[in-house]
């Protein structure tokens, strides 16, 4: 069936704008839904609700040159077995590139607040050189070390206690 076309290429082809109370679709232009959208959910509880009947719920983004296989792009997922209480939240960058976190982002800003680079190194910066770039704050009942550096066997090499004392061993 062709609407707005005399030569449809599929069972239903509409050329032009489709509009209704809940949906406006205009080809490559602005398309939108009014209300919540569910993918895998018949009762979405947010603007975009992705649910898997079993297994992993995923949201994947790929660019034009990144490819579109299961090992391409950037993935946000809820994975694991069993109930949602047993699932892990995952953020996966497949493209051997950094993951950057910004706050108060403005056009042209080039300094992220936190970077996890493609090799796993973490850089924390706040855009000014006078402030403390990393603060670790414990709770009043803190008894474990606030910060600890360990070797591959899990033995503490250096640590800082809740009272501020510590041990720094030479390696």
Can you walk me through this structure?
By secondary structure, the chain is mainly β. Helix content is 0%, strand content 32%. It has no helices and 16 strands. Strands 3-4-5 form a 3-stranded antiparallel beta sheet, with no helix packed on it. A 3-stranded antiparallel beta sheet has the order 8-9-10, with no helix packed on it. The chain starts with a strand and ends with a strand. The relative contact order is 0.06.
Report strand %. 25-35%
Q: Helix- and strand-based class?
A: mainly beta
Across the major sheet, the strand order is: 3-4-5
The first-to-last residue Cα distance is: 75 Å
The 3D shape can be described as: elongated
Low-confidence segments, given as residue ranges, are 126-131
Biggest beta-sheet profile: 3 strands, antiparallel
Helix-strand sequence: EEEEEEEEEEEEEEEE
* Tally of DSSP β-strands: 16
Overall pLDDT confidence: 78
Task: Figure out the total of helices.
Answer: 0
Radius of gyration: 25 Å
Helical content (DSSP H or I, runs of 4+): under 10%
